[in-house]
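Support request from a user on the community tier.

User writes: "When I paste my structure tokens into the form, the page sometimes reloads and wipes my input. The last time it worked, I copied everything first. Here is what I submitted, just in case something in the input itself triggers the reload:"
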């Protein structure tokens, strides 16, 4: 991140979070957060977020041990 990004972040933190931090204080956490966001974004590209919720229940049922399927579920 360059200084202009840190300046904006400092103003945002002060206005919306009530934190008075210098650019030096936010620099390293901001770099770390940017790296995490980049990694998460790349990882999430191949994931399907619009899957029908019922598909999750079916997947759980398919993965369940046979004894739970035949008994009608856990008690």
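"...and here is what came back when it finally went through:"
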């Amino acid at each position: 991140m360059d200084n202009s990004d840190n300046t904006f972040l400092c103003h945002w933190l002060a206005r919306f979070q009530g934190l008075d931090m210098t650019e030096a204080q936010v620099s390293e956490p901001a770099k770390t957060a940017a790296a995490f966001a980049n990694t998460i974004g790349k990882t999430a590209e191949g994931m399907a977020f619009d899957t029908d919720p019922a598909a999750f229940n079916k997947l759980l049922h398919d993965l369940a041990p046979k004894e739970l399927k035949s008994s009608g579920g856990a008690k």
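Agent notes: The reload is a front-end session timeout and is unrelated to the input. Residues 3-70 form one domain. The mean pLDDT is 83. Escalated to web team.
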